């Protein structure tokens, strides 16, 4: 009985590690914006690796910035997003002159 409980516990812990996603940070220019009802798909090109990532923006403050064109194509942004879902946790305009 103890072996069965230990096996189930080990299996549960193993599956949670596989199911967890990592948080990825990208800094680079916005290359494409697709506005939808309640969200936006934003394509950001990583400045270090030149790879493009599609990030889903859902928070109202950043959606307003995208609608008002304060963040547009070519704007440098810093994005932290969940690799499994693609949903942005942090979406900021890069500062500087």
Overview of this protein structure:
- There is one protein chain.
- The protein has 97 residues and is α+β, with helices and mostly antiparallel strands.
- Helix content is 27%, strand content 41%.
- The chain contains two helices and five strands; from the N terminus they run αβββαββ.
- Strands 3-2-1-4-5 form a five-stranded antiparallel sheet.
- The chain is elongated and about 60 Å long.
- The model has no long low-confidence stretch (mean pLDDT 85).
Oligomer: single chain
Which sequence of strands runs across the widest sheet? 3-2-1-4-5
Order of helices and strands: HEEEHEE
Q: What is the distance, rounded to the nearest whole angstrom, between the alpha carbons of the first and last residues?
A: 66 Å
Features:
single chain, 97 residues, alpha+beta, 5-stranded antiparallel beta sheet, 2 helices, 5 strands, 41% strand, elongated
Secondary structure layout:
Layout: H1 2-19, E1 23-36, E2 39-45, E3 52-57, H2 60-67, E4 76-82, E5 88-93
Antiparallel strand pairs: 1-2, 1-4, 2-3, 4-5
């Amino acid at each position: 009985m103890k072996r069965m409980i230990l096996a189930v516990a080990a299996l549960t812990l193993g599956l949670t590690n596989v199911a967890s996603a990592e948080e990825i940070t990208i800094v680079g220019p916005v290359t494409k914006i697709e506005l939808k009802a309640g969200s936006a798909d934003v394509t950001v090109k990583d400045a270090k690796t030149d790879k493009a990532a599609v990030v889903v923006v859902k928070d109202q403050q950043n959606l307003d910035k995208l609608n008002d064109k304060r963040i547009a194509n070519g704007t440098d942004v810093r994005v932290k997003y969940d690799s499994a879902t693609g949903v942005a946790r942090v979406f900021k305009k890069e500062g500087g002159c």
